[in-house]
Amino acid sequence: MSIPTIDLRKAEDPFYCTQSQENIRHALIEVGFLYLSNHGIDEAVIQDLVAILPTLFALPDKAKESVALVQSPHFLGYSKFGAEITARVQDQREQFEIANDLPDKRRLDPALPLYTMLQGPNQWLKTNAIPRYRDMVESYITAMQDLALRFVRVVAEALGLPAASLFSFTGPGDRLKLVHYKPSPEATFDAPSQGVGPHKDSSGWMTFLLQASDPTIKGLQVLSKDGAWLDVPPIPGTLVVNMGQAFEVVTNGVCKATTHRVLLPPGEYDRYSVPFFQGVRPDLTKQDLKTLWEHFDRKRWNTRESEEGRRIDSPFLRRKYETWGEAQLRTKVRSHRDVGKRHYAEVFEKYIGDD
Q: Which parts of the sequence belong to the Fe2OG dioxygenase domain (predicted)?
């Protein structure tokens, strides 16, 4: 099996849309990952962001730690190598996590659900080394928000739904990560070294990934329906797209949130990536997400998943939590335990012990 490429320009063109919709259905149902080409994002916006990544991560530790994630109850800011845990193992990546700048509503109204604290203001790095840092990041986020809505419309039509039928599930909590992986001289793709462990995306409705390194630098792998790990190498001019866990729920398991991982690159070259997670409405309940299940009757749709994929930690899929927001908070606390201990002491032990 290979990762298909969807040409968004053709998918939005009525002349090509029938074939494009068939290709999109195949990508979503049979593969779970796809490359998106001709996406329409201004190349200058992309290149401005890509160009600053080596400089950004080469900053002194003191500068990066000035916006340390542990300072933010919203899980926004910088986290160093080994600070995040996936599949119970420390991830060997450093990253800046940025979101829509939103007010901290729960500080004003403590009666709001605890997961409301996931939304709040960013910590913006201040450095003369990258004069337009905030402008470039915000320009990219704005472009990705527009692209995500365009693609959701195309996806809905490919799945036989009205074009706007999936918009009500999305929310204000879009997130962006700027990620750096150091090469590991000992790493080989026969003996994997964990950059990010196997997981299904929980942060967004859909994920749009920019692989911001040379095409020869591999790392991302996706788990096929048959249980084999497939390379997803960078292809210039494309973004990699996959579905989040909420999308799997709303499609009654027809479109799986496909398991994937990142291996540390062998050799001497660093790897950079920029995933954008389209926001999910935090107050969504499973009942809200079941409104389309009649359309996604599994008797009419082919659906399958590997045994390893079914074992991936997915609390919302397993019906442990009623709202998407609480399931997401639980995942964040388990992944960033220093933040959990500092800002969420009242639920820390509950979430850490919930396996």
A: 172-280
